[in-house]
Amino acid sequence: MTTLAWTDNLVLNQPTLDTTHQEFVELLNAFGDALDAGDDALPAYHALLTHTEAHFAMEEDWMARCGFDPQNCHASQHAMVLNVMREALRYANELNDREPLKILRTELAGWFPQHAEMMDAALVFTMEQLGFDPTTGERREAAVAESASAGCGSGSCGH
């Protein structure tokens, strides 16, 4: 059973982020496949967690370079997800309780598309507006003077 299908709805037309998101979906599916097969899912989960940490760090670096407040709602959501992922790993390792991993699989599959379509799409929009190039880390100087995003880049997020 596929945990989360990669669809065009997840494509944000930002090549680096789209590749990273596709990798996340593949790793989530590999983790789900290990659970379904009754295999030890911890190696697949470790790979997913390691990828997610790097994935979120990349986005947060972009946010910092685009002038987002460090405590913005997008980064806060990342922190909450990582905290839950790490806590599920702690349960598995220290308490030999794998149930949180199974629950997290379903929760991540439900959370990720919404996060990508809202938070990440807003980040991509902000990057485009600023002329930010994630490859070089540079942005157009004219846009820099005009902007300072304290929120998540979304119009629905308070500053």
From TrEMBL:
Pfam families membership: Hemerythrin
Keyword terms: Iron, Metal-binding
Signal peptide: none
Domain of life: Bacteria
Domain Hemerythrin-like: 16-122
Family: Belongs to the hemerythrin family.
Name the record gives this protein: Hemerythrin domain-containing protein
